[in-house]
Amino acid sequence: MRLLLAEDERDLSRILARKLTEEGYGVDCAYDGAEALELMAAAEYDGVILDVMMPRIDGFEVLRRMRGRGIGAPVLFLTARDAVADRVRGLDLGAEDYLVKPFSMAELLARVRALVRHPFGARTSVLTAGDLSVDLASHTVCRGGREIKLSAREYALLTYLLINKNVVLSRETIEDHVWNFDYEGGTNVVDVYISYLRKKIDEGYGNKLIRTVRGSGYVLQWKETEQKP
Hints:
Blueprint: E1 2-6, H1 10-22, E2 26-30, H2 33-42, E3 47-51, H3 59-68, E4 75-79, H4 84-93, E5 97-100, H5 105-117, E6 126-129, E7 132-135, E8 140-143, E9 146-148, H6 152-163, H7 171-178, H8 189-201, E10 210-213, E11 217-220
Parallel strand pairs: 1-2, 1-3, 3-4, 4-5
Antiparallel strand pairs: 6-7, 7-8, 8-9, 10-11
């Protein structure tokens, strides 16, 4: 899942971006409100972490302009301001959540997991497709009761496919949501990582989950009929 982190405190931004990247997210960073809006005009994000007190344009105004432009990405506000009126204002403008500084990294990560689940209506941190399960909290991936070890990028790709299960995703869409602007890999990066995932979660199983849709892209899909004798 691809996140925009808009935080003007550069040391904090660097720490948060590193931890979120370790958790498998693609992260783009902005250091003021105007830059955040520019990035949102250039890419589609699965979630936005937005500091309230930023230079040039504050977080409240960024959110107002986002929603005015039809950008529906869920927003988590970060702020040192804990006044009830500020929280109410942010939520009324269309934010999904609000976290007051200082906060624990564990709480932030839990709120981000809830944030990116929000548009898909997922109510728990465990995503499933047939006998495949991904626990977003523990980063545990299992198929048929067997734990599967994935790299951070493989995990990010699988999570994106799984949260969009039964939806055909183009290579461009996958790349836009799993990789950030800093990525400098090859043009066939999606195909390469799909191949890695297939070897780990599909090889040896009769029911193949990751399917190629010729001319369109890929879909993760569990077909019950394949389990019948």
